[in-house]
Amino acid sequence: MIYLDNAATSWPKPPEVIRAMANLLENAGGNPGRSGHRLSVAAGRVLYDTREALAELFGADDPLRVVLSPNVTYALNIALTGLLRPGDRVVTTGIEHNSVMRPLRSLQAAGVLLDVVPCAPDGHVDMERMAEALRAPASVVVANHASNVVGTIAPVGEIALLAHRAGALFIVDAAQTGGVLPIDVQALGIDLLAFTGHKGLLGPTGTGGLVIAPHLAPERFRPVFTGGTGSRSEEELPPEVFPDRLEAGTPNSVGIAGLGAAVRFLQATGVETIRRHERGLLERLLNGLREIPGVRMYGPTDVSQRTATVSVRIEGMSESEIGWRLDEEYGILCRVGLHCAPAAHRTLGTFPHGTVRLSAGVFTTYEEIDQAVAALRDLAQSRHRD
Ligand SMILES: Cc1ncc(COP(=O)(O)O)c(C=O)c1O
Fold first, then answer.
1. What pLDDT is attached to residue 386?
2. Three-class HEC string of 175-239
């Protein structure tokens, strides 16, 4: 089996992740922050350690400003719905995932003003149009750090400058870049970094979160979910402290233990090292695919401008047939269709059929990439045989 679906969720996970999850259940299985006994305290310590690891990874100073959530979708909803009010203006791009677009469309229906800045067909944000959109005041700018369809990396540092000049907060959807590209929230000027634990961060599903800049007071957020937090139990209103204000209910301690171990693995390996490996794989994949007649590739040609996520089509063959045959005949697992990002596919000109997406990860080998290229060559040639 060759796993090339790391943009959906990474697999396999480092063994440390699995061990940390089992260890949590065996040795720290209390409810964190609720009771005062040793198992509860041990679980609370695991949560704090994970926040600390994430804060270090993303260049944030305060681990308590790392809010944990079930995934990046929740984190984006917590940020967007928590901050935006009717009459506020939000600016986004034409290459976003539905976990940005759907909350924004709901907020738009509730009176938030929405501007979508177009992107070039290779997924690059049109920065002139972005600058133009941000000549007028705005409350929030939200953009992904890299596209989940073609891997195009956005110039988040430049967008941050434009956003701040317009008086806006800058929210980044780092679903595709956490653990894949180095990220320093302070150096890049990111006010809110939304991440998911189960992709490049190499943690289990059911984990993610939001890193919140020091200048944002908890009261600015209207919590999407309210309930027990284990703190200020005398109050019937949500606590006005991070992370409790945005973390109601018992957390996924098992998953968070795994995420903490995953982040420590990333730190020991080095995100720069991982990026170099994935960039090499990407180059090999693009060079191989380029040679196959009938295969069309999408996204930037320059590997420095994209992650190791590649979208292709084979002329005259449906995406679902390609995906099915890759799995059945070659043991290659990938994802076909719209990848929860119809706006991105409209930008790329691949709506409504979508593409075949191959996404490499830290554990992908060059040999596996060569086998994927050979399989796609076979499939493209089979059009003339069948
Ligand atoms: C760019 C982007 N944003 C958001 C998401 C949503 O991730 P999750 O399902 O983990 O919330 C994904 C992954 O599918 C993604 O690639």
1. 62
2. CCCCCCCCCCHHHHCCCEEEEECCCCCCCCCCCEEEEECCCCCHHHCCCCCCCCCCCCCCCCCCC
